[in-house]
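4.2 Preliminary Data

To establish feasibility before requesting continued support, the project team ran the inverse folding procedure on a target of 281 residues. The structure was first converted into the token representation described in Section 3, and no sequence information of any kind was made available to the design step. The complete token record follows.
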């Protein structure tokens, strides 16, 4: 590690990811901790942060566009019958503690605050694990606990009236290249075939790198994938696909995503083999 304000994850002694703990960002970007840059073992970057096309896309992290009307995603808010709208409704994820912080991972506690009120407390666990001499795995679990006295619901532009835009939860903004990356799942190929559907894993395959995302719990695998490649390269797991996700007072929503980060272009068989190795039973 380089210090608890900017932990650096290492695999086999090589730095593979930096965690920005306290980003200095304008309120409209919904400030939150994130991983960037993330690289392959050979050093190829596979994330982008604050790109020109979407300044609120911040590497790898957790972001939700609608928590009881508060925007923890950044940018404009999709309003039913109005479309994307600039609102003064942005929240922030504030780092509170690192109960554990080591060279291969950390446990973090965060507070989700909007309009001066704490809505959620999160425990985030991140670990980096070697798989082969060309691949490693990033294991990210987030647990969101409703600490208010009433129910909270989490939504997305899709649940607010924008079809196909069920983003919110885990999100990875990937490296943008001249050509869009390929998309693979166990039984489909291409953005259109994978977007909005459930699959045990989903791969983005770029010019010399591959990312394979896998839900590592039964509940996580129930969430459909959000996929973009033509407009920009990004993958997320949809917490609120068709309906809002309700979290009762004191209850916790938990999701775990394991991402294989590999040098080279994986095919479906290679992706599946690495997922089996990365995701423990």
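Position-by-position output of the design step:
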């Amino acid at each position: 590690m380089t210090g608890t304000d900017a932990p650096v994850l290492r695999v086999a002694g090589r730095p593979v990811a930096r965690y920005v703990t306290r980003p200095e960002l304008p309120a409209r970007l919904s400030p939150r901790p994130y991983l960037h840059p993330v690289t392959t073992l050979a050093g190829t970057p596979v994330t982008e942060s604050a790109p020109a096309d979407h300044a609120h896309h911040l590497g790898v992290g957790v972001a939700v566009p609608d928590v009881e009307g508060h925007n923890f995603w950044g940018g404009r808010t999709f309003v039913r019958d109005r479309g994307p709208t600039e609102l003064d409704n942005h929240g922030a994820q504030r780092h509170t503690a690192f109960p554990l912080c080591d060279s291969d991972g950390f446990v973090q506690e965060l507070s989700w605050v909007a309009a001066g009120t704490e809505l959620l407390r999160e425990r985030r666990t991140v670990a980096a694990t070697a798989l082969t001499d060309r691949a490693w795995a990033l294991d990210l679990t987030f647990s969101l606990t409703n600490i208010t006295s009433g129910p909270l619901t989490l939504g997305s532009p899709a649940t607010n009236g924008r079809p196909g835009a069920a983003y919110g939860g885990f999100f990875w903004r990937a490296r943008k290249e001249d050509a869009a990356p390929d998309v693979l799942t166990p039984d489909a190929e291409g953005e259109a075939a994978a977007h909005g559907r459930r699959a045990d894993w989903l791969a983005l395959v770029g010019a010399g790198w591959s990312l394979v995302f896998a839900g590592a719990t039964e509940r996580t695998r129930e969430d459909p994938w959000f996929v973009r490649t033509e407009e920009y390269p990004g993958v997320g797991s949809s917490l609120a696909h068709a309906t809002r996700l309700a979290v009762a007072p004191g209850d916790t929503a938990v999701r775990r995503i394991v991402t294989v980060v590999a040098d080279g272009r994986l095919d479906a068989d290679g992706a599946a083999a690495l997922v089996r190795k990365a995701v423990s039973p």
